[in-house]
């Protein structure tokens, strides 16, 4: 059952799990540690997590799990060979101890929004536990699994990756029963080695589910997904055209997305036609798990996006589309397309650099620069080292090497509609302070 997670402490994982059950939560950060936590001393490239064990216990942690004998303190300290691998093994053991149904999802764009929508829909009928924020890596996935309890009926686990074999590894930890891939786009090109590498890496979720005869949810209008799963039987999905799948009709996105499913019209609080498939996935998965149509409608219409994702914010006379949580060439392009469909006048796009593009960075930033210039947008501000290097002869476009330079040249904006989008490291939500 534990597969590669038998690791070194196979005989002790069950014992460690019993200790975990007597604690109220896992903590890996002494700034957030609380009374009765189990603290895992995880080390990074530039720090030794074991040095924080004493502080964690002082702040109320019940147990500190360490992997360096020099920091052993008392019977409240558990020494293991590797704290991270022990955390992953414990999560895998706990997942099977609970016997909970696990839905895993990955993709280039829309993972977190889709995860939140699925959780909102399924929680209408089930006790659910979902990934908090975007804790979707080799640490976040174990923490998500370990946050589940005996009351959890369905777990929704977001999986992120920027290299080959990462999704495969996360699947070995979570061992999902169901899976969904939002899309394949130009994200993390540097790590994946191009778009084909992205498709191969994200498809590791398909590979796991197919090899273990599990269920797959599919966007049947995505030709890549459809072709890959053409001969696989255990799939359930949605389509605007294919009658073999749940029929969903796109209605409008001006600015909020509305759609029809099973003769029911649902109007969301999400902007952008690109959110249509995210809404389709949540609705379809809800139907698969026998959530009533009215409950699905209620859930989706009550969902309000947060965390800088497709938020509409009013600031004085300005309307802001804040989509500054992250960006890659695929999501940037669809965001700009959607922006041009807005009916408001005086459209202003404030765009920040897209990260992790490797050797494709120059080409991709030039493409977005040219694409933005070709659209019906009144003013364009490009911020960051890569956008600054792109060539533009358009008088409506201004380029800044840094946010500080943009800030120094910023002039008041009134009665406008603004799109703010860039990679997380650009932190373009700072623009709100200038408005």
Automatic annotation (TrEMBL):
InterPro entries: Mur-like_cat_sf, Mur_ligase_C, Mur_ligase_C_dom_sf, Mur_ligase_cen, Mur_ligase_N, MurCDEF_CellWall_CoF430Synth, MurE/MurF_N, UDP-N-AcMur_synth
Span of domain Mur ligase C-terminal: 309-390
Leading EC class: ligase
GO biological process terms, semicolon-separated: cell division; cell wall organization; peptidoglycan biosynthetic process; regulation of cell shape
UniProt domain Mur ligase N-terminal catalytic: residue ranges: 25-93
Domain Mur ligase central: residue ranges: 106-284
Residues in the signal sequence: none
Listed pathway(s): Cell wall biogenesis; peptidoglycan biosynthesis
Keywords: ATP-binding, Cell cycle, Cell division, Cell shape, Cell wall biogenesis/degradation, Cytoplasm, Ligase, Nucleotide-binding, Peptidoglycan synthesis
CC per GO annotation: cytoplasm
One Gene Ontology molecular-function label: ATP binding
Catalysed reactions, as listed in the record: D-alanyl-D-alanine + UDP-N-acetyl-alpha-D-muramoyl-L-alanyl-gamma-D-glutamyl-meso-2,6-diaminopimelate + ATP = UDP-N-acetyl-alpha-D-muramoyl-L-alanyl-gamma-D-glutamyl-meso-2,6-diaminopimeloyl-D-alanyl-D-alanine + ADP + phosphate + H(+)
EC number in record: 6.3.2.10
The protein's role, per its UniProt record: Involved in cell wall formation. Catalyzes the final step in the synthesis of UDP-N-acetylmuramoyl-pentapeptide, the precursor of murein.
Record family assignment: Belongs to the MurCDEF family. MurF subfamily.
Protein name: UDP-N-acetylmuramoyl-tripeptide--D-alanyl-D-alanine ligase
Gene coding for it: murF
């Amino acid at each position: 059952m534990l597969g590669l997670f038998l690791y070194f402490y196979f005989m002790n994982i069950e014992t460690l799990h019993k200790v975990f059950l007597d604690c109220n939560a896992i903590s890996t950060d002494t700034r957030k540690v609380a009374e009765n936590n189990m603290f895992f001393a995880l080390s990074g490239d530039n720090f030794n997590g074991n040095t924080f064990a004493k502080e964690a216990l002082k702040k109320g942690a019940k147990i500190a799990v360490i992997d360096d004998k020099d920091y052993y303190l008392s019977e409240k300290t558990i020494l293991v060979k590797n704290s991270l691998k022990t955390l992953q093994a414990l999560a895998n053991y706990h997942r099977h101890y609970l016997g909970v149904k696990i839905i895993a999802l990955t993709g280039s764009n829309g993972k977190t929004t889709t995860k939140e929508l699925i959780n909102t829909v399924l929680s209408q009928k089930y006790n659910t536990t979902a990934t908090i924020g975007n804790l979707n890596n080799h640490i976040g996935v174990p923490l998500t699994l370990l946050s589940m309890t005996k009351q959890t009926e369905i777990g929704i686990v977001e999986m992120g990756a920027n290299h080959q074999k990462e999704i495969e590894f996360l699947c070995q930890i979570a061992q999902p029963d169901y899976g969904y891939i939002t899309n394949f786009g130009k994200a993390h090109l540097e790590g994946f080695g191009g778009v084909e590498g992205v498709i191969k890496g994200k498809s590791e979720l398909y590979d796991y589910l197919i090899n273990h005869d599990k269920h797959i949810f599919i966007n049947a209008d995505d030709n890549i997904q459809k072709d890959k799963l053409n001969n696989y039987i255990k799939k359930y999905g949605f389509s605007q055209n294919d009658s073999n799948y749940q029929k969903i009709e796109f209605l409008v996105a001006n600015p909020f997305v509305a759609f029809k499913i099973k003769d029911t019209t649902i109007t969301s609080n999400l902007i952008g036609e690109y959110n249509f498939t995210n809404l389709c996935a949540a609705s379809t998965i809800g139907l698969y798990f026998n959530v009533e149509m009215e409950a699905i409608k209620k859930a989706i219409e009550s969902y309000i996006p947060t965390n800088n994702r497709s938020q509409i914010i009013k600031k004085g006379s300005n309307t802001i589309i804040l989509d500054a949580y992250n960006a890659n060439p695929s999501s940037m392009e669809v965001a700009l397309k959607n922006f041009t469909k807005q009916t408001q006048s005086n459209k202003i796009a404030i765009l920040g650099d897209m990260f992790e593009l490797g050797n494709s960075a120059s080409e991709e930033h030039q493409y977005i620069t040219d694409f933005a210039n070709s659209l019906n947008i009144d003013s364009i501000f490009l911020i960051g080292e890569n956008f600054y290097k792109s060539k533009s002869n358009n008088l409506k476009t201004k380029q800044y090497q840094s946010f500080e330079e943009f800030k120094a040249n910023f002039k008041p904006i009134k009665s406008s509609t603004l799109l703010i989008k860039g990679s997380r490291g650009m932190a373009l939500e700072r623009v709100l302070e200038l408005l």
